[in-house]
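Backbones bend. To wit:
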Amino acid sequence: MVVLLALVAGAPMALLRVGRTDALSGIGLDQLLFVADTGAVLLLALTLVAWVAWFVVAASVIAEVAAVLSRGRIRVRIPGGSWAQPTVSALVLAVAAMVASPVGAATAQSTDRTSSAPVVASATRQPAADPVRPAPTPPAGDEHEDSVHHRVAAGEDLWTIAETWYGDGTRWRSIASANDLDPEAVLPVGIVLRLDGVTSRPTSEPMPEEVAVVVRPGDTLSSLAQDHLGDSARWPEIQAANATRVVDPDVIRPGWRLVLPAVAPEGTALGAAASQGPAATKDPVQRVPTSPAAPVSSAPAQSPADAPASIPHSDPAQQAESAPPTAPGPQAGQTLGAEKTSDSQELDPALAAVAALGTLTAAALSSALVLRRRAQLAQRPVGRRMVLPEPESLHIEAALARSAATASDAPAHATYADVLLGSLDDGSPVLHDLEAAITTVVVGEPDRVDQVVAAAATGIALQPWSAESGLVVAGRMPWIDALDEPQVQCVEDLERTVVQLERSVAARRVALGRARLTAGGGGSMDEVDLASLREDPDRWDAWAPLLFVLAERPTTTQWGRIERSLSGSPVGISVLAAGAQVAEGTPPHAGEVVEVHGEVASLRGTGVRFTPHLLDATARRALVDLFETTAAARTTPAPWWSHDEDLPPNLTLFNRRCPTTHEDQEAPVDPTAFNHPTLLLLGPVDLQGCRGEAPTRARRQCVEYAAWIQQHPGRTSSQMARELMVAETTRRSNMSRLRNWLGTDSDGQLYLPDAYSGRIELHPAVTSDWEHLQLLIGTGINRTSTDGLVEALGMVRGAPLADAAPGQWHWAEEMRTDMASVARDIGLVLAERALAELDLDLARWAVNRALRAAPGDEPLMRARIRTEHLAGNRPEVERLVLQTTRQARSLGVDLDEETIGLVQEVMEGRRRAQA
């Protein structure tokens, strides 16, 4: 208080007494130019500078007092006052603490100035606007029985925490003492503070939550306002709520987290979410608490080693038919890989390997494989079959799909340089900002370190929030190289990688210096930093985060070069490196160190303990096989196609003997048409012709079991449980339901006999529409009569396994792609024959029916364009051309040369001339 009074009142009194402003009227231009200075001019200049400084200090005092009195709602940034405002903020807070006034709860901790409250020091450099991180667990071994633990939320400081828990903001000193805090450091969001002497819940009500949305590619302020506020004209409200970030309303970048106005009209998506609570909020809107978080129990965190050895299995048959069962999601302290069956038999290693990778990364890998298969199917030549991975690789892919079905939405607060390191006991993801730490080193057992770095690099390459960040991987990671992502570069030589890092850092520093010099001519050089440069969309590509992952351990010399290169102001380049064992020491001066001990890892700078995400050797080999075999050009001759050049002399393809109905309507399936149980797979799945009573529960699972047994006759129960990824008790109960449903034939023989020999098989009379279709084209699609092709294509009721829920039928990916490929080839051959005879009705029917199984297929779209062109339907031709080009862009592939030529012919009348 004395210092404040001296600054506010004493300083002007001193300036009035000793200042030389009186000399201002006595100094003329002639005296300045031709008379030797006696010191009056210098004293006058110093006096004027002192008065300007006093005005800045006085304005800062007024601004800080207003912030305290308004509990932080009024925040004013004094132009040119960055040198004085933090100090004044500390003085005002000290006075508020002295008088023990409740209004001291609001402090000067904002994104525009430094907080004056004592805070926890962290080894991780904090970004300008640190997103909310998952709450870390309390430190193990805490023996204070009357203590609780509090996770620091965004906007909190020690004063508000003390006022919340103790009812007295002046007790922030006890928090500082109990946690050994550094008064000069910035309080990181997400750290855990121990609060001694707390015996009750917080004394104040939590502050209301804010609703935020993460910008995705293609979003605009208008579209966000339409989606979440119900009116596109309300986009200025979103800009006003994010004025510090959204300077130009036409420029918003994917990954930005924008706060939405708190009030939304009823009936809109945001209004409904607000009325139903946080659980009703859907992607991309995420609830981000800004109030003090609920206290964390002071009990030591349960490590994965202490977790239960098994997850209780509820009978999936007890679930409602309207909600097909999926894999049980990990619960607190549990992972999918720890799951066991009721007879203590370990679940297969594929699930354990995928579970260790984490559901978010598994979902990203599964989505990448689905997209690659779509592109591969779209570019597959007729009569060719996609190359199939090894069985173990397919099993890993099935486990990825199973894990992806349980994955939660991506964190809304993730930033471009965030990497997934692991999960807390409650399943919350642990995100680490590589750009804020600049250098991050993973230390521990060498094998565990390699698995952590491999999982982290895979996540960076595939996660949506880091899609615009550059990634350079040093070391052998062939599965990442096989991704063929434009922002990912794999370099096997570590020395080349270090040289590339040094050159990239030097180039950015030179560019940053030039930008500051340019700004110095008409503005403040201090305002030119990495964030301001990224605001310019034309500069984003050059200044986007560039992340180096060193899978190979750098030498001491190489690490020293990296440190020297990255020292100084940040330029958006950061390093994640595999380090040596803890006992051997770690690379010096790392911004953050991740320590891995078995199944537990921790961030040394923050004390966060978590279960690390791992990518073991089994999963790596499978990923290499999966990504290499899903390359678009990898195909083999299809077994449903005859590859002989000439027909035998005694073989003739007969034309259609009777007219065919080409109505595009679905005829109902008559159960009486099946004399024996028949699986329907070429569309929505079903089981018809059964002799027993249909189960009231788990009907879809029984259908899946029947299809698996039909495709894998003679397998054992343990093989069935492994490939279907179910517990043995669940498998037995569903097998009993299936046996009762199928019933017996006219001779009393069970359609699903008891497996006395240990081998499970269906009655020979049990069949499927897929088997019938294969019989019709047994000689090859290109040698099957037109009648046979019409009959076969008429069995296609939709996309194969059309209504299979996510996580189910994961074992049938090979069969599903084969069914789609066969349906496409049949439709294409049948359409070509019909066009040759100018039977446009048959051609149109064949293409439309085949497109049910292979939507958007390019060769089928060509046949459809030809059909409508011959029919003179110009509007439909234009629509189909536009649809085809959009489909290629969505898959990220080029149109086939034949498609380009056809489009030129139908749109321009002829093909363009080429050399």
In short: The first helix runs from residue 2 to 18. The domain at 777-915 is CATH 1.25.40.10 (Serine Threonine Protein Phosphatase 5, Tetratricopeptide repeat). The mean pLDDT is 75.
